[in-house]
Amino acid sequence: MNSIVRRIICIAGVAAIAVAGSAVPAQAYHYKTSNGCTPGKWSTPDPNPKYYIHINEFFAAGWNASDLGDLDAAVYDVMREFNAMGGTTASVDTSGINNNVEPYEANTPFNDTSPTIHIGFTDDPNEVDTSGVARASAKYLPDASCEYDEVRITFEDKSLLDWNFGTPSNYYTATDTDSSGAFWFRPVMMHELLHAFGLDHSADSYSFMNGGWYPWAGGGGDMADAIKPLPDDVRALRDLYPASGDRSEIALLTTWYDRNRITSGAADQVWVCSPSRGSAISTGALATAYCGVGGPNAGSTTVCAGDNVYAWYVMANYSTDTADDISVRMYLSTDDVYSSNDLLSPSTPSPTVEAARSKVIGNRLEVPSGLTSGTKYYVILHALGTTSSGDWVEDWTPLPGRLTAC
After folding, report:
1. What share of the chain is helix, strand, coil (3-state, %, to 5)?
2. How far is residue 109's CA from residue 395's CA, in Å, rounded to a whole number?
3. How far is CA 75 from CA 41, 58, 177, 384, in A?
4. Domains (ranges, CATH) in the chain?
């Protein structure tokens, strides 16, 4: 076989991929095996592939110029957040013109001789793998040195599946589709991009290589930045394509992976439980619908000042250093946006999360005073502190569900 043809990856993508949630922190990323290579790698130790979006088939499916603008923005935002990982040479060249009118066929190589990612759409369901929940597949065809120069990422087009290229307003309880049933494109694009750099599905770690309801890290930031590789993915790429460099960033997230729901080697992510009263915290973030269990008030969301509520949440540490001086505070708010003027709980959990790790955390939190009877409140967590290198990090998120004042 021609060495150029052998240095090709073909990735076919649709909707979300597999499935994940559990209270056990998962730390083990997985590399893709193909042609005896675990993993195949880009042909350069400093991969910076150019990407092209093939637009002929996109327009032929019935999308218009405005839709293309939305697609361009979605892909660019995903690539930009991928490039922000730090501590790795893995990145994508986002410069120049990225739309391409060259015909796209999922199974026809372009025979690139320098690292290139092709993104295209198909109206042929046979060109994507329909065996899994997400109907996405990855073929790696590295050469004898386990290297490749080309990736083709293929999405089902509008005739087969509807896509939403935007972002959700309720990011902390977003599923894989919007209210109309259209699939969120950005999380799937990130999943496929990680395949392109050698990562495989994960059933035992919290990763974008899971499936289900991917997390949007939206608290306190621009939603265009909300889809980013999870720490497990970051660590995998730092190990595979190592480099110097620092990054200091955390996120509070509301999904976790379910080891009991696995499709095509990937565990589904689902929401963590909703905060509630009880006499103890549930055995895991996904064990019950409400985090408080036991006693006559188990699962109750009606609270008075001084009551205890139980909550699970995830802290993702994208940093190159440990987040070891962090305070997490609970606020009750009448809207889902953090403000220091909201009602503040006296409880102050102080979790520690290692570099490039995620941890699912359960806490008992005291309900603050100042409640207005009958008012429904969002539970908002705010994390602030420093990494071991002294850099400040901060994030916040609403949790699923609401509490009602007695």
Report:
1. 15, 35, 50
2. 43
3. 22, 14, 18, 30
4. 3-246 (3.40.390.10), 272-405 (2.60.40)
* pLDDT: which is higher, 130 or 146: 146
* CA nearest to 170, candidates 315, 378, 374, 19: 378
Q: Encode pLDDT of 174-209 as tens digits.
A: 999 999 999 999 999 999 999 999 999 999 999 999
Per-residue pLDDT of 41-70, as tens digits, reads 898 888 999 999 999 999 999 999 999 999
Q: Is the dihedral of CA 340, 342, 347, 352 positive or negative?
A: negative
Strand partners, 353: 323
Residue holding tokens 């894989």? 176
Is residue 297 predicted with pLDDT exceeding 90? yes
CA dihedral (11, 30, 89, 36) in degrees, to 10, reads: -70
* pLDDT, average across residues 279-298: 96
The DSSP secondary-structure symbol of 125 reads G
Cα 54 from chain centre: 25
H/E segment holding residue 151: strand 150-156
Q: Which of 337, 331, 364, 332 is nearest to 349 (CA)?
A: 364
Q: In a 3-state reduction of DSSP, which class is residue 5?
A: helix
Amino acid at 59: F
Q: Indicate the SS3 state at residue 323.
A: strand
End-to-end CA, the chain: 73
Q: CA-to-CA distance for 259 and 237, rounded, in angstroms?
A: 23
Give the whole-angstrom CA distance, residue 289 versus residue 293: 10
Distance CA 133, CA 128 (A): 12
Dihedral sign of CA atoms 222, 224, 227, 228 in order? negative
* Mean pLDDT, range 110-125, rounded to an integer: 91
Higher pLDDT, 22 or 82: 82
